[in-house]
Amino acid sequence: MLLSLPRLAITLAVLLAPLSVWGADQPAPKGDPGKPKSGQFGINQDGITSPEMRDALTKLNEAGMVEGRKGSLTFFRWTDAKPPLLAHLGLWGPKVTNEVFALISALPDLEHVSVYETNIDDKGLIALTRLKKLRTLSVLPITRYEKAGFGPPQWSYPFMAQRADRPRITGKALRDLAPIKTLEQLDLLDVRLASADLEALSAWPKLSTLSLPNTIDAETVKHLQACPRLTSLTLGYREVTAAELESLAGWKSPRKLTVVHAKLSDETLQAFSKLETLEELHLMDCDLKDDRLRHLRGSAKLTYLALERNEIDGPGLEHVATLKLKKLGLEFNNISDKTLTHLSQLTSVENLALSYCTGVTDKGIQSGILQKMTHLKQLGLRGMKQVTDASLDDLVKFGHLDHITIRETKISLEGVESMKKAMPKTVVFK
C-alpha cells in the first residue's frame, strides 16, 4: 500500500488501516498494559487525566491481546499537544464487545475510531455519539494478505480467524449516528448495508471520504450526489462490475476511487475510463497480472495509479505507460532485478513506489536503471531486504530526487548518514 499507515491505513486504513487514516507507517503498539509509556503510540502515561481513563485504556488494551502472541493489537495514537491527547483508537477481534466499546466515554478527545471484525453491534456503536470531536469512523474487515517470500504489510493479521456468525453492524446504525455532525470519513466495508440506508449520509455535511460494501446502483448514486464534499470512494471485498462504474459515471464529483480485494473483469478494467473526473485510482489486492493491464483504461485526468499487492512482474507496464501518470504505486508486486528495465518506459512518472518488491536486490540498484530515470522526484524502496551498504555508491546517484525511502532495507545507519551527506537536496527516509 502507498502508505503513510498508517498502510490504510493508515493506508486502507490503513491503509485502509489497511485503510486506516493514521499511523500506516507504524507497527501495532506492543507492551504490558500495566506499564504505561510515553510517546505517540501505546498507552501514554502523560496523557492520562483520570482513574476512569486509565481503567478504560487498560481494558481496551487487554481486549486486543491474542492468545499465543505478544503484546496487544489495540492501537492508540496521541497528539503532540501538552499534555498529549488520545486522537485515534483501533480495535481488533472478538474480545471487543459492546461493554468494552462503551469505555470510549472516558476518551472524549478521540477523532478517529477504527474497528475490525469485533463483537460490536448496532447498539454498541451508539457509544460513539458521546464523542464530540469524531472525524473518522472505520468499520472494516481484517486484512489477511499473505504472499510467499514477502513480509506482511502493516495491519495485516492472517492469524485472526474469520467468524461468519459474529455480530454485525447494519445500516440502522447510520441513522443512530446522525447527531455526530463532525464526521468527515466513513469506512463501512464490514457493515451490512443496502442502498436505501445511504439516505442517512446527508446528515454529515463534512463527509469527504466513504467506503461502501453494497453494489452501486442508481439509488446509491443519488445519495452520493447529496454529499457536496464527497470526493473519495472505496469499494471491495466482492466483485465490482462494469455496470457499477457506468452508474458512478453519473456522479460528477469523484476524484479518488479505491477498489480493494475485489474481482475485476476485463470489461470492468476498461470501464474505469468512464469516470471522467477521476484523478486517483487504487486497485489493491485484485490479483492483477501483466496481461490484464492491457485492458486498463483511465480518464484524461488520471495522474495517480496504485497497483499495490497484485502479481505484476513488469512487462505489462508498457500498457500503464500510455496513461501518462505522475505517480505510480507498485508495492508488493513481483518487480525484480530482471524486470526493472520495464520501468524505464514510464517517462511521465515522477513518484514511483517499489516498496516491498523483494526481488530487487543490490544487483538491481547497481544496474543503474532506476538512476537513469532522472524525471523521478520521489522513489520508494522500503522493505527491499536484499539492498545493502554494498549499493551505497549507486544509491548516492539518486541526488536528483526530492525524497527517497529506504526503511526496512539493510542499509546501515552509517550508510544512511553517508547518503545524506552525498545527497544534501534529497530527504533520505530511514
Helix content: 10-25%
Multimeric organization:
single chain
Instruction: Give the C-alpha Rg.
Output: 22 Å
CATH structural class of the domain at 1-230: Alpha Beta
CATH architecture of the domain at 1-230: Alpha-Beta Horseshoe
Here the CATH topology of the domain at 1-230 equals Leucine-rich repeat, LRR (right-handed beta-alpha superhelix)
**What order do the strands of the largest sheet run in, or round the barrel if closed?**
1-2-3-4-5-6-7-9-11-12-13-14-15-16-17
Largest sheet: 15 strands, mixed
Structural class: alpha/beta
Helix/strand order: HEEHEHEHEEHEEHEEHEEHEEHEHEHE
Rounded mean pLDDT score: 91
Tell me the span between the first and last alpha carbons.
18 Å
Note the overall shape. Answer: globular
Helical run tally: 11
Number of β-strand runs: 17
- Which regions are unreliable across 5 or more consecutive residues at pLDDT < 50? 1-36
β-strand amount? 15-25%
